[in-house]
Amino acid sequence: MSTTSESPQRNTRQRRAVAAIMADLEGFASAQQIHDILKQRGESVGLSTVYRNLQALADADLLDALRNDDGETLYRRCSSGHHHHLVCRQCGRTVEVEGPTVERWADAVADDHGFRDVEHTLEIFGTCGDCAS
Amino acid sequence: MSTTSESPQRNTRQRRAVAAIMADLEGFASAQQIHDILKQRGESVGLSTVYRNLQALADADLLDALRNDDGETLYRRCSSGHHHHLVCRQCGRTVEVEGPTVERWADAVADDHGFRDVEHTLEIFGTCGDCAS
DNA sequence: ACTACTCTCGGAAACGATTGTCAAATCCGT
DNA sequence: ACGGATTTGACAATCGTTTCCGAGAGTAGT
């Protein structure tokens, strides 16, 4: 499988259901939460399947994935291109932010120390206005 | 535990052994790796104890902790104060970096969106000069 | 529509890091 | 050295996630 094709990607009810949830969802959610939501909507999908499909979507860059402090992986739909997140630690509301300054700073710092092929991760956590009251 | 004192903090062989390892260690290491190193040095310490002491040291801001992509928590000694890391993804060599500009930017962005109690995480990964050759 | 060939599903078992339990060992002030 | 509190450590339990594997469902070819 080194050469070309990804797997053919079949169009299943479960795949559609997970994608639909993610399209609606505002903040980050864990695989288990998404599994619960599916159950509530009556579109029951096996937990393993939820995990698999979320991974697939994340691999295809259709979802952002991040780990919270509890070690859970959270998913959320995302716009294309490089960006970071401002996440409410109460309700999960998320704002995508860009910071050209930060990008340049990170690259410059890495360059100063002779590092190549630089990447970075940056997340901002806080309590949003609504949750603060 | 809201009120006053930290726990009395006793000076045990195990606590000293863990602290000693961390003083020597150059890059980030997982609790289990540290447990192994202790065993090799003949200073055997229970795994739970290693976990507990690493957490305690991290809580006391004597160690930095970060999670790798595999979900393991890695520890490393650190200087005091807020800082970030530039980590070589090959050899683990780590440089502590500061970025007042970034701090201000993050706070400003969060403030713009009405977020309070803001924290952020930022790590830079790359290949260091030595490993690039 | 029928067949054959996969890919996918799902429930249960496996996994791996971490945390909890609790009796025994160890500290440390007195 | 004594005694009460903390800490240790072997083991079990937890928790998120992954893997297994037989059954089920898409899809292409006829």
Summarize the structure.
2 copies of one chain form a homodimer. The termini of chain A are far apart. Chain A has helices at 13-24, 31-40, 47-59, 100-112, 129-132; strands at 29-30, 63-67, 73-77, 84-88, 94-97, 116-127.
Tell me what the structure shows:
- Two copies of one chain form a homodimer.
- Chain A has 133 residues and is α+β, with helices and mostly antiparallel strands.
- The first copy, chain A, folds into two domains: 8-76, Winged helix-like DNA-binding domain superfamily/Winged helix DNA-binding domain (Arc Repressor Mutant, subunit A, Orthogonal Bundle); 84-131, Dna Ligase, domain 1 (2-Layer Sandwich).
- Helices cover 39% and strands 25% of the residues of chain A.
- Chain A has five helices and six strands; from the N terminus they run αβααββββαβα.
- A three-stranded antiparallel sheet of chain A has the order 1-3-2. The first copy, chain A, has a three-stranded mixed sheet with strand order 5-4-6.
- In chain A, a hairpin with a 5-residue loop joins strand 2 and strand 3 (73-77).
- In chain A, helix 1 (13-24) packs across helix 3.
- The longest helix of chain A has 13 residues, at 47-59.
- Chain A is globular and about 55 Å long.
- In chain A, 24% of the residues are buried.
- Mean pLDDT of chain A is 91; it is low at 1-5.
- At the A-B interface, helix 4 and strand 6 of A face helix 4 and strand 6 of B.
- Strand 6 of chain A pairs antiparallel with strand 6 (116-127) of chain B.
- The structure holds a DNA duplex (30 and 30 nucleotides).
